Amino acid sequence: MKLKTRLIIAFLTVILIPVLLTYLMVCGLSRYQINSIEKTYEITGTTVKSFANSMQVLSRLTEKPYHELDELAKEDSEQLEDATCLEKFNKKLEKKKAYLLVRKGTTIIYMGTDIDNVNHVIPQLPAYGESGNTSENGVYLGGEAQALVKQVDFLYGDGEQGSAFIVTDVSNMIPEVQEFIVDLVMGILMVLVLTALLLIFWIYRAVMQPLGKMQCAAQNIKEGNLDFELRPAADDELGRLCRDLEEMRKRLKDNAEEKVKYDKESKELISNISHDLKTPVTAIKGYAEGIMDGVADTPEKMDKYIRTIYNKANEMDLLINELTLYSKIDTNRIPYNFNTLSVNEYFNDCAEDLSLEMESKNVEFGYFNYVASGVQVIADAEQIKRVIHNIVNNSLKYMDKTKGKINLRVKDVGDFIQVEVEDNGKGIAAKDLPNIFDRFYRTDASRNSSKGGSGIGLSIVKKIIEEHGGKIWATSREETGTTMYFVLRKYQEVPIHE
After folding, report:
1. Is the confidence at residue 446, as pLDDT, over 50?
2. Among 199, 269, 339, 469, which one is most buried in terms of CB atoms within 10 A?
3. Distance, CA of 317 to CA of 457 (rounded, Å)
């Protein structure tokens, strides 16, 4: 889930969950308190709106007593002078959060509560006949009285005017309404706390846990510990950040391993070059001392010594050139100069040069070209020639036959030109064949100094061919010989349709 989606859900959660829970809580609490009010005060028809209008609730509480008082006044007004009857009626009103006042003429003859509670009510009581049709619903007395008064007018037996008042103190809500409001406030607070806890837990799992993992991963990377795995928990922004961090860790680890490998190879290269340079340097030094000491006392010996020194210097030059080329390969700085080459013309020239070289070394050379005229490839002529010479020199280096033989074949294999260099040398063991193109790999574990070489010739060949978009491989049989293969893609012109 995307982080944006999570934020939207969190926003809706903050709004909808409290609203929904509050609504359910209001419905439940109101239903409970309505039942309690109707049962306690013996009324019916109470609704949720009644909690918002306490005056309406208080008015309904005394609705039944009002009608009883009205009937009593009509049927037997004399009882409204009977203290026992009035006290009994007042007891009923106390349960309704109200009390009774009875007035005869202008004198209050009965008070159902303490004088302190009615000091502000009595002066505001309506006069006889003033209540009219509002008596049943009551008259609100404001100011310091804060009371709802229901009035019943009647005449005493002696003809004097009388009024009975049911007075309800509206300054305080009935306990059930007050309890409802308190419960509602507490419930809303609980809903908010619960929602906050749920959001915190959700955000912690969705955000803080991945951040914690990434922080731990960053700390490990900082300390150089790259041997761990960071797995994303979800497919969102944080998950993608985890994957990026894991990719960075892998690359750093690969770079670290590559650096270790590079350092090892560099040390091995230096060791190889040092070992291989030592042999020709020792020979040059020995033959030069022989000349200085007068050992070469004949023109024939002098010529032999000078040629030997020259050949050894050429070996050193070859090693130094390989080292230079290796450095360029390792930093991808080989200077390629790609051109369109005619396959026949190019390999005919290569074969002619190889033929002269093989003749001087008493090695039989065969050249076979099966490619039609006009076929071309895009290649660097100098670098492909280096490939062929490196392969041929490698064959000569490990040639163990008295009569050596090397064949060069060029074939057309569809979209590619396949070049084969075959020798009749000692061959390569099956266990060594997959590794011959690795840098510094030598099948000759004893490092016979007569073989020479830095161990990077075939790795250079592989690099050059791959940079040409081709591939190279080999087949071999021990004591029979080895065949090296490489392919180059043909040059094909694509017609342009107007």
Report:
1. no
2. 269
3. 14
User: Residue 331 burial (CB < 10 Å; 0-12/13-18/19+)?
Assistant: exposed
CB 272 within 8 A of CB 440: yes
Length of the chain: 498
Helix then strand count (H, E) for the chain reads 13, 12
Give residue-wise pLDDT tens across range 83-102: 889 999 999 888 877 899 99
Between 24-33, 48-57, 139-148, 207-216, the lowest mean confidence (pLDDT) is in 48-57
Residue 422 falls in which region: left (phi positive, over 0), alpha (psi -120 to 50) or beta: beta
Q: Which residues are CB-contacts of 284 (< 8 A; sequence separation ≥ 6)?
A: 309, 312, 313
d(CA 112, CA 110) in angstroms, rounded, equals 7
Work out the angle between the directed axes of helices 63-75 and 54-61 (0-180°, nearest 10): 40
Which segments of 266-375 are extended strands (E)?
Answer: 339-342, 363-369
pLDDT, position 465: 93
Asked if residue 232 lies in contact with residue 240, where contact means CB atoms within 8 angstroms, the answer is yes
Helix (H) or strand (E) holding 237: helix 237-292
Average pLDDT, stretch 406-423?
A: 95
Q: Helix, strand, or coil here: 484?
A: strand
